[in-house]
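Hi V.,

You were right to ask for the full record rather than a summary. Here it is.
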Amino acid sequence: MRRGTATTTAAAGLAGLLALLPLGAQSQETDPSAPEARLTIGQQIAVEDGDLIGITPLDLNLRTGSRVQTIQFSLSAPFRLHDPDEDKSFALGDPQARLLLRRGARNSAIEAELGYRENDLDEEILFDDLSNEFVTLDGGRVAQTDARLTYVFGREAKLGGEFGLSWIRRDYSGTTDPDLDDSETRSGNVAFYLEPTPLVRARILAEASRTDGEVNDSRSDRYGVGASLQVDKLTNLDVELARTHIRREEGDGTVEQAEGPSLRLGLTRSRPLGDWSLSFGSDPGTAGRRENFNIGRTLELRRFTLTGQVGVTRFQDNYDPIFQIAYNQKLTEMSQVQASLRRAAVTDNDGDEALNTDITANYSRQISAVSSIAANIRYRESEVQSGDREDARSVSFGLDYSRALPNDFSLVAGANVIRSKDSDGTHDDEERVYLGVNRSFSFLR
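Predicted structure:
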């Protein structure tokens, strides 16, 4: 099976990139609004599960724009040599690309995004955008293509709104899990905002989603009203009441439907060191109604930031604790630590319910003006509450080192380990050690 590659500095800007893959040296912070064109190419040697593989990372970052317009493009195309899991001696690894166009004025903005990524399923743990997915242990691969278009107007007016369209295509190959169904999801949303008084901003909303799979199809519609109210100078209340309809059809012709009201409440109160928050949500589902209740607190101090939420979720008359904690501290001028813990209820496109637990910790240190080191760990677990999926868990650890060399060269080295297991005893272990040299070329500067 093809493993993820050692990435370089330019790959760090790609949305959805593997969070634990090695990064190249970054000598200084760059201005995110400045034009940039950067190409990075290198040669690396990796030992993956006992096999010696050559890797040639190729990464490209482009960014240009003005005060009202931004264009960004990122591409990662790593090539692999003598990979035993490939039919050819020279093959493309896990390609990823993303294009973002944004144009905005004071009162309106339009944004379009197009992306593609391909990777092994057992490395899904490394992606940050999978909070609503189950942990999957399977030996196949997945390719995802997505597109999004959003238009917002009247952001500072008494009458405004937003329109959104999105499309996602997921294609699986080499898999054995019947729940991994090739699918195409199309969704859209519209909302209109009215501000009858300076303290009240009301809204009318409608959402629709359609997922067509090779086996299962899913449909959902949601429409309703809501309002944000400023109770006093420190307190804000947000209320939303909607009607939701869900319909799912399985491959054997079985149809599951659910319809009912959706209620969401949010209360925030500002304090000198951070906000207090309270939230409640109740939504219907084909496997039962889900209700979530949370109390949160944010602390913003001079040396660190701490955000926490604790609550309970109710599903099929069962109550389970849910929580979310995020910690960020700059230890010294040369080092930083980040950690997060999250447990939340999720529902996949087939209507299966689970409790997902996600733990991450990252430490980085600038050893000198030209070298840095980073360590990270991530744990993900899915406890299935409805459906025929297996409980599964994965943990990964990464240690990466980079050193800047003359003439825009950089030395990169590190190791990554992944350990996975599901409730029927299936194991999936991956190990990789790599060493290489990268070269970067910068333009437009």
